[in-house]
Design goal:
Blueprint: H1 9-32, H2 38-59, H3 68-92, H4 98-105, H5 108-118, H6 125-142, H7 156-179, H8 187-209, H9 222-249, H10 252-255, H11 258-274, H12 280-297
Length: 303
């Protein structure tokens, strides 16, 4: 029996929107860093989106009683996904271009293969090949100081360190939720818990650092408010809503294609809007990483 079936127009539109929205968040963070400290951006966008998703979950009747074990899993996921994942990606945004960050974060599927392997699920040769190619692409990126934002070449390895923490933490969070079967609740409930707790951790740490003393809302231009609204409402709230819908409406392999489409969009937008250069070495590394993700996400081995 063929495993292909017609994809509804709603799914096609939702996929297209997810590609555009999540592919553009790297650029949005990069722009907002001109006006706000990175951790303030992480806290504010996730608290806003998390609060709205909580209201949606409760008022929409989607909230369910959650076991203590699943509460722990989602609180931990909030730290890994939001506090460390989003937080360190924002910290890297002032050092490396948005397109560079998006390609680096595409290493995620390769890391998940390694995590599941350590958990006892031996990968197929196809997945293993993809994982090696992805790691090779990252090594190519790490060797190129010239890819840093002009004037930040001396901080390039620091930016690599931030991105490494972000991509590893994000995929630990994803892995934990999957292996504990904690994702059976409505996406509004799950995302609200993760976003609000992750944002709270960032708020406490950012307050200790004194980041909020550097924020003067009256001095922010309308452009900053517009980009923030896009990040919180479209990038976080609407983006996660689309992801939740697609995860239940179609095959997981199809949903995972955002992992290798987003960097292409981010690279193009970064070049078009911020004139971030598309250097040949970046394109070579992008090809290696994205080809790796294609190999992994199209593998027919039972998960």
């Amino acid at each position: 029996m063929s495993n292909s079936k017609a994809i509804s127009p709603r799914v096609i539109i939702s996929l297209g929107l997810l590609y555009l929205i999540w592919g553009s968040t790297f650029l949005s963070v990069r722009i907002l860093l001109e006006y706000l400290p990175p951790l303030v951006i992480t806290y504010s966008r996730n608290f806003t989106a998390g609060f709205l998703l909580l209201a949606w979950s409760v008022l929409g009747g989607h909230w369910q009683k959650m076991s203590p074990k699943h509460w722990r899993v989602h609180l931990q996921a909030g730290v890994f996904l939001i506090s460390l994942g989003n937080g360190f990606m924002s910290l890297a945004g002032s050092i490396v271009p948005s397109g560079f960050s998006s390609v680096f974060m595409a290493l995620g599927p390769s890391l998940l293969v390694l995590f599941f392997w350590l958990d006892g699920r031996k990968p197929s040769l196809r997945k293993l090949t993809g994982t090696i190619l992805g790691l090779l692409g990252i090594l190519v990126l790490m060797s190129q100081k010239s890819l840093a934002i002009e004037g930040h070449e001396q901080d390039f390895l620091v930016g690599i360190g931030y991105l490494s923490v972000a991509v590893i933490a994000w995929n630990i969070g994803v892995f934990r939720v999957q292996v504990t079967s904690a994702n059976t609740y409505h996406f509004t409930q799950v995302c609200a818990i993760q976003m609000l707790f992750g944002a709270l951790v960032v708020f406490i740490y950012s307050s200790i650092r004194g980041d909020f003393y550097d924020v003067d809302l009256n001095a922010l231009p309308p452009k900053a408010f517009a980009v923030f609204a896009y990040l919180a409402l479209i990038g976080s709230m609407f983006g996660f809503s689309l992801f939740g819908y697609l995860s239940k409406a179609c095959d997981a392999t199809l949903v995972s294609t955002y992992t290798y489409v987003n960097p292409i969009i981010a690279l193009y937008l970064g070049n078009l809007i911020l004139a971030e250069p598309l250097q040949p070495i970046l394109l070579i590394a992008s090809f290696l990483i994205l080809f790796a993700v294609v190999l992994i996400s199209t593998d027919k081995q039972k998960s």
